[in-house]
Design a protein that fits this description.
The complex is a heterodimer of chains A (about 500) and B (about 650).
Chain A: H1 8-26, H2 31-55, E1 64-72, E2 77-83, H3 87-104, H4 113-132, H5 136-145, H6 147-157, H7 162-191, H8 196-201, H9 206-223, H10 232-239, H11 242-267, H12 269-295, H13 300-329, H14 335-367, H15 378-381, H16 383-396, H17 403-416, H18 420-427, H19 429-445, H20 452-455, H21 462-480, H22 483-500
Antiparallel strand pairs in A: 1-2
Helix pairs in contact in A: 1-2, 1-4, 2-3, 2-4, 3-4, 3-11, 3-14, 4-5, 4-6, 4-11, 5-7, 6-7, 7-9, 7-10, 9-11, 9-12, 10-13, 11-12, 11-13, 11-14, 12-13, 12-19, 13-14, 13-17, 13-19, 14-16, 14-17, 14-21, 14-22, 16-19, 16-21, 17-18, 17-21
Chain B: H1 5-25, H2 27-59, E1 65-75, E2 78-86, H3 88-111, H4 118-137, H5 141-159, H6 166-197, H7 202-207, E3 216-218, E4 224-226, H8 227-242, H9 251-254, H10 260-269, H11 274-281, H12 283-286, H13 290-313, H14 317-337, H15 341-368, H16 386-400, H17 406-420, H18 426-452, H19 460-464, H20 471-496, H21 513-520, H22 524-531, H23 535-553, H24 557-564, H25 566-573, H26 578-626, H27 633-656
The chains are: A mainly alpha (about 500), B mainly alpha (about 650).
């Protein structure tokens, strides 16, 4: 078949980037064409990822679809791409989400539409690049360049306080990444290679591992974000336009998670073991502490942003629970479940947070407010919207039957193996998550319409309904049948668990 | 039928779901009649097929069915599956759930006739039936938890059905969150089971319980707990949430904010009995933890007695029945604690019918009274609503355990079981349930007399339009009255003597109180006459008599009594202060913590000190060092000299050693 020999990973990167540049050439005057063209590009990208999924071999150990040639030969830096079961679901998530983002911007963004679309398309390519890069410098380049379109998206199309938010966002994440670069250079000096897989194999003594772990931690923990380096996220979300929030929550946070799996854990497994307890405690703090903070937010976007941090706590918890299991039971049994649960949590959170931010966006377009107190009784005028949002609110509270349940469930099951109290603390999210989500839902959606503007709201139109319908379908599908996601990642996660359960000390 | 049995089970579960989806998503297209037809047909299919399956399993004695439908996911070598376990326990629940639900569907046509959310309501109650069937038919803990939370979701939607009503949307949030507290425990129990049994499949877990009989786990340092106790306690916390046991009962009375049919659906046949069903299902686990059984006895008897008291002071007709439900659930829980699981299930079945009947009768009254729920504004209704009055009377008799009615057999069995139990907590439980019988009769007939007899207190406009409820309302009442009256007669012997539940319920030898009762059993007639030798019957009669005295003979008596015991009355009216306590300590406390962490933790500490603080300190620092870069050559030269001297000093110092 002609699809067999396509450089599909390169296409996933370059099709959207070139498409983005092309939108600039089309220009703002031809808004309609810009929109249709951007939509076309995102659909093509999504289809490419679907081909990737279709051709992906679930039972293959290691990287697939490898593309490799020298980029800067003097330093052995390569343009080296490949995909495994950890990256693939995240790529699918990325390409799926960007289709929605373009649709969501359809009638909403009317200023500099071509720039807006360009920023998103380029961002898509760069994010795909992050997930498929196998050369650490190439990874770093994608990782850092991602900040630029995001910076512009918040800075140009953002809300009133956007300058503070963008600077905070930029400095926070940039500062973290610098340490990652230092760690990569150090690793190059030891291993003589920038190849990520080679770095996985290089033996390191514990002190070096610890320093490397901390350097990577600064980059990834900020991104995910973990408590206490999370405060950039609520600010960034509040100021970002809807599309920006969606990308930020659905995909950019997952970069941090991906980084842990691709760098921290396999490169410094002994340090990961050493820091596992700290990481588990930080994760639990994120789950509980942030849950309380989310409860009292008055800004819907802030509330969802905090809820994201709390949910990401399950991701980091799931990543480090395996080390707890190694220590507690001297075996790898049960470790896979925590790790896969964390992966599932990332994917599911992508759908649910995207959906919730889109829901807030839908209301914001109508009333130009994100404050809970400005709403009340929305269901009276927007019953369809209320039904969709109910589903997403329940998914956010981790209701079984929605994708939001799967990851949390597995992580809690797996953490019980380490300690009753870890499972106990993590399971508090059952109460807290429901409390902050449904309390917000109650105040915004239920009740009598509090003022005329609310009772005059127009229900969602076909475009908005379509977007929410797509998200609702995946949330339900993967809640009822999550097996397809797990089948893709089993082999890679298994391999990762085996790798990190072995010491790399000299 | 045998070849297609899996299809039949699937149909039983999915038919209500399809109905719910059609009515919910295409509500406008299919219209009001369309919505009630699709859902009634859907649940009707479930009911009829459930009855066929009941015949297949119970009467024809087919073996238990235990098969997976599909693999939800597999991770770490464990397959999480969705599947069905059909045995006498689940098949009986299936019949009760689908049948009562079917009656409620029909009743709803009349009750919700004028409501704008007609289609939505049918969609919800069908979805509820689906969730409940998933729960009872599950063959594993995952699916049980799915059904468990799904009924919680639909009850949330149903209680908040009238979403404009502030009290309704307060009640539904409360119900969901309190249930979540229970689910929290339940989930931990499931996690513990997975850890020790490496499977979530019922049969696999039950087959391996012996292995972990003596395993211990350290939760607080230095204390080791039996694993079975930890698992059972956690699971029971879940049951306390769903089955509304003290102190997690607070959501149930408030949930009366929803339309009446859902009160019947949630509080009679379905959701609240999920906890009782679950504990019975897990009997092989609970039998291994005497600690938990004792706790269950205590919690159950406190609920049975003290929630009964609250029923005495309520004036809202539905709330009286709600507290009665709490109290009856307490009885079932007591039976579980006494290891009389079969008796608990027996009471669950009879209660499902007579309590649904009472709720629907109350609903008929409410709708004919134009949504008046205060019993003080009723009275003398028997003249206008004879069928409702008669059926309500039958339900009331069953509730108080009048000899021969269904409730008599099941309740008497529970009391006898507690009497025979040898657990330390059983004495307390015995007296609690005995006194409870008197209280039950008192509040039940207080309701009955206040509503149907005595002075007519309604307004003139209401009075003018009073008449019997329409046939779609009275028909379900009449249908439900039959099992309320007779079910006990049919079930007592198979339950007590015939090993009705087979291997579905396990009771260890030393706890088997029902076998002791069975040994003394000499037929139905003697069971009834025998009852006259024991206090419960007289307690019930005296309760009825006191109700008659207070509400028919001397209507001024209650008021005088209230003046005498003002303090106690106040405690009861305030529901022992649970609501205020929760509102202040939990709801308020949690918000306070939230504000503290948000204002102090995030804004002051992290953003203020760490983030902006570091930005500030960089500015201060750079301001300082800016002065050094003065641009004067002699400053730099001087700095160089100082630096050199410093280096020299260090060098000399080092060499010196």
């Amino acid at each position: 078949m002609f699809l067999d020999n396509l450089p599909i990973l390169s296409m996933l990167i370059w099709v959207p980037i070139l498409g983005g540049i092309w939108t600039l050439i089309i220009g703002d005057q031809q808004e309609r064409i810009v929109r249709h063209f951007s939509f076309f590009i995102t659909v093509v990208t999504f289809l490419l990822s679907a081909v990737l999924y279709y051709q992906f071999d679930n039972s293959f150990v290691g990287m697939q679809f490898i593309e490799e040639f020298y980029w800067i030969e003097a330093f052995g830096i390569k343009y080296h791409l490949g995909v495994d079961g950890i990256a693939l679901p995240l790529i699918m998530l990325t390409t799926f989400t960007t289709v929605l983002v373009v649709l969501a911007a359809w009638e909403v963004i009317d200023e500099n539409i071509s720039y807006y679309m360009c920023a998103f398309l380029v961002l898509t390519g760069l994010m795909n690049g992050v997930f498929v890069a196998l050369d650490s410098i190439l990874f770093y380049v994608f990782w850092e360049s991602m900040l630029i379109p995001m910076f512009l998206i918040i800075g140009i199309w953002g809300g009133a306080n956007r300058v503070y938010a963008t600077i905070k966002f930029f400095l926070y994440t940039f500062l973290g990444s610098v340490f990652m670069l230092v760690a990569l250079l150090y690793l190059y000096s030891v291993a003589g290679s920038f190849n990520i897989q080679a770095l996985h194999e290089v033996p390191l003594e514990l002190t070096a591992q610890k320093l490397i772990f901390i350097a990577f931690f600064l980059a990834f923990a900020v991104k995910i974000p973990m408590w206490p380096v999370h405060t950039w996220l609520p600010d960034a979300h509040v100021e970002a336009p809807t599309g920006g929030s969606v990308i930020l929550a659905a995909i950019m946070l997952k970069m941090g998670g991906y980084g842990f799996l691709r760098f921290s854990l396999p490169i410094a497994p002994d340090a990961s073991l050493f820091f596992a307890n700290t990481m588990i405690i930080l994760s639990l703090i994120a789950i509980v502490y942030i849950g309380f903070v989310a409860l009292v937010q008055e800004d819907m976007k802030k509330l969802i942003a905090y809820s994201s941090i709390s949910h990401m706590g399950f991701v980091t918890l799931g990543f480090f629970i395996p080390f707890g299991i190694f220590a507690a039971t001297n075996s790898t049994a049960g470790a896979v479940m925590g790790m896969e649960g964390a992966m599932m949590q990332m994917i599911s959170h992508g759908f649910i947070s995207a959906a919730l931010f889109l829901c807030v966006g839908v209301m914001y377009e109508r009333l130009h407010s994100r404050m809970i107190k400005d709403y009340g009784g929305v269901v009276n005028s927007m019953p369809c919207f209320a039904a969709f949002m109910m589903l997403f609110a329940m998914a956010n509270s981790g209701l079984p039957g929605t994708s939001g349940f799967v990851g949390e469930f597995l992580v809690i099951l797996s953490s019980f193996k380490v300690s009753f109290w870890i499972a106990f603390t993590a399971a508090l999210t059952l109460i807290l998550g429901a409390a902050y989500t449904l309390w917000m839902y109650k105040r915004v959606i239920f009740g009598e319409a509090i003022r005329e503007e609310v009772s005059d709201l127009k229900d969602i139109d076909a475009r908005e309904g379509f977007i929410l319908f797509l998200l609702a379908s995946v949330v339900l599908l993967f809640g009822v049948w999550p097996a397809p996601i797990f089948d893709v990642m089993h082999v890679s996660i298994q391999q990762l668990i085996e790798h990190i359960s072995q010491t790399k000390l000299l | 039928m045998i070849n297609h049995i899996e299809t039949i089970y699937l149909t039983i579960v999915l038919a209500p779901l399809v109905g719910a989806l059609l009515a919910g998503l295409l509500g406008n297209a299919i219209g009001r009649a369309g919505a009630h037809w699709v859902t009634i047909i859907g649940v009707g299919i479930s009911t009829i097929l459930s009855m066929l399956v009941y015949k297949h399993h119970i009467i024809d004695g087919a073996p238990d069915y235990n098969q997976a439908v599909y693999t939800w996911l597999s991770s770490g070598g464990i397959d999480f599956q969705i599947g069905f376990l059909i045995d006498p326990l689940s098949v009986t629940m299936m019949v009760v759930v689908s049948f009562v639900s079917w009656m409620i569907h029909i009743y709803t046509i009349g009750y919700m006739r004028d409501d704008p959310g007609y289609q939505r309501f049918f969609s919800y109650i069908s979805l509820f039936t689906f969730a409940m069937l998933m729960l009872v038919m599950a063959n594993n803990f995952l699916q049980l938890f799915f059904g468990w939370e799904a009924v919680g979701l639909v009850s949330y939607l149903l209680i908040g059905f009238w979403f404009k009503k502030e009290s309704a949307i307060f009640a539904n949030l409360k119900a969901f969150l309190v249930n979540r507290v229970g689910d929290f425990g339940f989930l931990l129990g499931i996690a513990a089971i997975l850890m020790y049994f490496n499977s979530l499949d019922y049969v696999e877990v039950f087959n391996n319980v012996e292995q972990h009989k003596d395993t211990t786990i350290t939760i607080l340092s230095g204390q080791s707990w039996s694993v079975m106790t930890v698992i059972c306690l956690s699971l029971f916390i879940g049951a306390m949430g769903k089955s509304a046991q003290v102190p997690l009962h607070v959501w149930l009375p408030d949930s009366m904010e929803g339309p009446t049919p859902i009160s019947a659906l949630i509080h009679a046949a379905t959701m609240v009995t999920a906890g009782i069903f679950m504990v019975s299902r897990m009997s092989p686990l609970f039998e291994l933890s005497v600690t938990t059984l004792n706790l269950i006895l205590v919690v159950g008897s406190i609920t049975a007695l003290f929630m009964g008291f609250l029923g005495l002071v309520q004036n809202d007709i539905k709330r009286v029945i709600a507290y009665s439900t709490l109290s009856q659930l307490g009885y079932m829980t007591v039976a579980l604690g006494a290891s009389a699981y079969a008796a608990a299930m027996f009471h669950l079945f009879t209660h499902a019918f007579f309590k649904a009947l009472l709720f629907l009768a109350a609903g008929a009254v409410i709708i004919m009274m134009h949504h008046e729920q205060d019993m003080r504004k009723m009275g003398g209704l028997f003249k206008y609503m004879p069928i409702t009055c008669l059926t309500c009377f039958i339900g009331s008799l069953a509730l108080i355990g009048f000899p021969g009615t269904s409730g008599f057999f099941s309740k008497d069995l529970i009391i006898e079981a507690v009497h025979h139990s040898s657990l330390p907590a059983s004495d307390f439980a015995y007296y609690a349930v005995l006194l409870g019988v008197f209280i039950t009769a008192l509040y039940t007939f207080r309701l009955f007399f206040m509503t149907f007899f005595g002075k007519e207190n309604m307004t003139r406009e209401v009075w003018e339009k009073l008449h019997e409820a329409p046939a779609v309302v009275t028909a379900p009442l009449l249908v439900l009255a039959v099992p309320s009256l007779l079910l006990g007669l049919f079930l007592i012997e198979p339950l007590l003597l015939g090993d009705y539940f087979g291997s579905a319920i396990y009771v260890s030898g030393e706890h088997n109180v029902l076998s002791k009762i069975a040994a003394e059993y000499q037929g139905i007639v003697s069971f009834i006459t025998h009852a006259f030798l024991y206090p419960p019957v007289y307690l019930a009669f005296s309760g009825l008599f006191v109700a008659w005295l207070c509400y028919i003979k001397y209507p001024s008596l209650p008021g005088k009594l209230v003046n005498r015991i003002g303090f106690i009355h106040k405690v009861l009216v305030n529901k022992y202060g649970f609501d205020d306590f929760n509102q202040i300590v939990f709801a308020g406390g949690v918000r306070k913590i939230g504000y503290f962490l948000s204002e102090f933790g995030d804004l002051k500490m992290i953003d203020g000190v760490l983030v902006n603080g570091s930005a500030r300190s960089i500015r201060i620092f750079s301001n300082m060092i800016r002065h050094i870069q003065s641009g004067y050559l002699y400053h730099y030269a001087f700095a160089i000299i100082i630096g050199l001297l410093l280096l020299l000093a260090i060098f000399v110092h080092r060499v010196g050693y």
